[in-house]
């Protein structure tokens, strides 16, 4: 039975959520032009959790903007096999005039859902991030961690009927049929204190498993990347290129259980590589 | 493993599972193991039962920590103090007005100026009250207030789309921005002679002056409201799938509401002032008797009590509209956003 359980995730990871081929992004023109990304090849499988790691200036956020379709690449191809990806930023950026539930409803409203449907989906999503009874609170009445959870629920809602939860109304979605959803996260926990961040990382993993969404998670924290990601991708800085990838499934699981020699090794290895990348800029 | 009860592919029950996982009353270890096994772990076989058991315990620990954080971090609401609050808000202005009248009474009693320059407070009150009793005040107020309100509403209808255009279209801002700011600084009474020459002594002339007073304020209020929106909000809107129009309706306008309201308030004040100026200068039997005309009559008949009563009425309308319409609106808007600092 363990075997049958292990198979579906493998099968779905055959198809990809998003593929980047030779993506380049240059800002400005002429001698003042800055190349943020140069020849980035990256593939995120359906339902896969990938962490993008890099020092400042490596174009992590630029890459996310390109995938989110908020910006266009200068060269290369981005092929998404998902609907519009959900995006989560470092700030919760909730609309201060809307209640938590209305914030979650906003993308559904923009998608043209009826009021009653919106309420049901928003309620389910708030339950998912464990804010069930707090839908009528305003953002200023919530703590930073709670706001970030509302933002997560809103992001999932914006993935529309692909979020896995939204399909609950339709119910016809078979295991093989639905297009994979994609969640893009730009250092979403960077502004939180350590304990809140720890809790939210666990929450995110739980939500990810519950919704089977592909996640592209940008961070500069090696430990966070190893704990969350199935795969960690290291980007170089100015211009951003993929330096190396690590399979961190085992290390991440070890980190959660606390039996962490292997995890410590992986973190050490990635950190030293990151240091190399950074110090190469001092020489140049 | 609890997995087999769950119909495969039913997403709603997947959520159900995800939600129930951290609850402590279930067998936490087992659900924790199912959770990790379901989470795309091809290497699941290599992991021992004890390891996953600790993972489950860890998870419930974390959810307890999370609940504690929620309880500690959520900002507390302070409860209002009812009667005391109303008293501290209402008493100071009342005392100020009483003092003002007292000083007036003392100055009048000292007889420093002749009676026709500084009448007794009681004389002014009698003049005012006699007009209230015979109903003349109602007609005067109606003439002025309905003009001001209509003019103001027309100003809102023109100023709002204009403000959106100026704020969001660069060429329009470059072209109209300075003109609007100039118009806002130009006392609209300066338009009265031109309006009378263009339109004649009629309502059109008066509305023209009122519009030129209110539209620039409303427009500029909306523009500064939009300029002050944190740039992350429209970006989020775009990420959530808002097009240009939807973004204006669901993000820009509500986000700009505090600035817009300030503009509306100023727009109302300018409408009211412009109207008084227009009525004071452009008097004609065809225009009826508004507050400005009433004030003008007081001057013509050398009737100081009437002049002061008219000024009092003009003030009363201004303060009344502010207190009855704009203050509650502003309070509701600011309170909903947690911006209660200025409200006291």
TrEMBL record, chain A:
Highest taxon in the source lineage: Bacteria
SUPFAM superfamilies linked to this entry: P-loop containing nucleoside triphosphate hydrolases
Keywords for this protein: ATP-binding, Nucleotide-binding, Transport
Coiled-coil parts of chain: none
InterPro entries: AAA+_ATPase, ABC_transporter-like_ATP-bd, ABC_transporter-like_CS, ABC_transporter_ATP-bind, P-loop_NTPase
Secretion signal, residue range per the UniProt entry: none
Record GO terms (molecular function): ATP binding; ATP hydrolysis activity
Domain ABC transporter: 18-262
Record protein name field: NitT/TauT family transport system ATP-binding protein
From TrEMBL, chain B:
Domain ABC transmembrane type-1 stretches: 141-325
Pfam families: BPD_transp_1
Domain of life (superkingdom): Bacteria
Ranges annotated as biased composition (Low complexity): 28-52
Protein's name in the database: NitT/TauT family transport system permease protein
Keyword Metal-binding applies: no
Principal location listed in the UniProt entry: membrane
Statement: the UniProt record of this protein carries the keyword Heme: no
Protein's organism: Goodfellowiella coeruleoviolacea
Location of region: Disordered: 1-52
Gene3D superfamilies found in the cross-reference section: MetI-like
Keywords from the UniProt entry: Cell membrane, Membrane, Transmembrane, Transmembrane helix, Transport
Family to which this protein belongs: Belongs to the binding-protein-dependent transport system permease family.
Topological relation to the membrane, as annotated: Multi-pass membrane protein
GO terms under biological process: transmembrane transport
Transmembrane parts of this sequence: 86-113, 148-167, 179-199, 307-326
GO cellular component terms attached to this protein's record: plasma membrane
CDD domains with a match to the protein in the record: TM_PBP2
């Amino acid at each position: 039975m363990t075997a049958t359980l292990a198979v579906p995730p493998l099968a779905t990871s055959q198809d990809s959520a998003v593929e980047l081929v030779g993506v380049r992004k240059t800002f400005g023109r002429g001698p003042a032009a800055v190349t943020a990304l140069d020849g980035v090849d990256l593939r995120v499988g359906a339902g896969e959790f990938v962490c993008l790691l890099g020092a400042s200036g490596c174009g992590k956020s630029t890459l996310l903007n390109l995938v989110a379709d908020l910006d266009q690449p200068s060269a290369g191809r981005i092929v998404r096999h998902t609907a519009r990806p959900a995006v989560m930023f470092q700030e919760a950026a909730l609309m201060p005039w809307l209640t938590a539930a209305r914030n979650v409803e906003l993308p559904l409203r923009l998608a043209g859902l009826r009021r009653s449907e919106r309420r049901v989906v928003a309620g389910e999503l708030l339950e998912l991030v464990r804010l069930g009874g707090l839908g009528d609170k305003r953002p200023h009445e919530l703590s930073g961690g709670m706001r970030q959870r509302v933002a997560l629920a809103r992001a999932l809602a914006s993935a529309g009927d692909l979020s896995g939860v939204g399909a609950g109304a339709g119910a016809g979605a078979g295991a093989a049929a639905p297009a994979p959803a994609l969640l893009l996260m730009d250092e979403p926990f960077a502004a939180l204190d350590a304990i809140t961040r720890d809790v939210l990382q666990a929450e995110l993993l739980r939500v990810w498993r519950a919704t089977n969404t592909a996640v592209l998670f940008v961070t500069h924290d090696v430990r966070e990347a190893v704990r969350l990601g199935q795969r960690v991708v290291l980007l170089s800085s100015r211009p951003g290129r993929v330096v190396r990838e690590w399979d961190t499934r085992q290390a991440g699981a070890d980190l959660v259980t606390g039996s962490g020699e292997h995890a410590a090794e992986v973190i050490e290895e990635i950190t030293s590589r990151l240091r190399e990348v950074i110090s190469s800029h001092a020489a140049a | 493993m609890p997995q087999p009860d769950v119909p495969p592919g039913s997403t709603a029950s997947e959520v159900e599972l995800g939600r129930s996982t951290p609850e402590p009353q279930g067998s936490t270890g087992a659900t924790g193991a199912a959770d990790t096994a379901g989470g795309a772990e091809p290497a699941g076989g290599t992991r021992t039962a004890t390891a996953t058991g600790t993972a489950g315990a860890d998870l419930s620990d974390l959810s307890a920590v999370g609940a504690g954080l929620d309880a500690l971090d959520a900002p507390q609401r302070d409860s209002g103090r009812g009667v005391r609050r109303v008293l501290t808000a209402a008493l100071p202005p009342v005392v100020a007005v009483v003092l003002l009248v007292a000083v007036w009474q003392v100055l009048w009693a000292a007889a420093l100026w002749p009676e026709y320059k500084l009448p007794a407070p009681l004389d002014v009150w009698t003049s005012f009250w006699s007009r209230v009793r015979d109903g003349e005040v109602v007609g005067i107020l109606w003439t002025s207030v309905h003009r001001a309100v209509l003019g103001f509403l027309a100003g809102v209808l023109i100023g709002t789309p204009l403000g959106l255009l100026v704020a969001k279209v660069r060429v329009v801002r470059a072209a109209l921005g300075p003109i609007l700011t100039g118009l806002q600084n130009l006392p609209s009474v300066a338009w009265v002679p031109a309006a009378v020459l263009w339109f004649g002594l009629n309502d059109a002339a008066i509305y023209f002056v009122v519009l030129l007073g209110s539209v620039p304020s409303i427009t500029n209020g909306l523009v500064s409201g939009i300029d002050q929106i944190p740039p992350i909000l429209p970006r989020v809107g775009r990420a959530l799938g808002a097009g240009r129009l939807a973004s204006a309706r669901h993000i820009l306008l509500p986000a700009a509401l505090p600035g817009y309201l300030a503009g509306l308030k100023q727009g109302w004040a300018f409408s009211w002032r412009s109207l008084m100026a227009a009525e004071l200068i452009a008097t004609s039997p065809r225009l009826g008797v508004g507050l400005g005309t009433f004030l003008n009559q007081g001057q013509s008949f050398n009737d100081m009590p009437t002049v002061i009563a008219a000024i009092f009425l003009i003030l009363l309308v201004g303060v009344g509209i502010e207190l009855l319409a704009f203050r509650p609106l502003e309070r509701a808007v600011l309170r909903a956003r947690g911006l209660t600092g200025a409200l006291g």
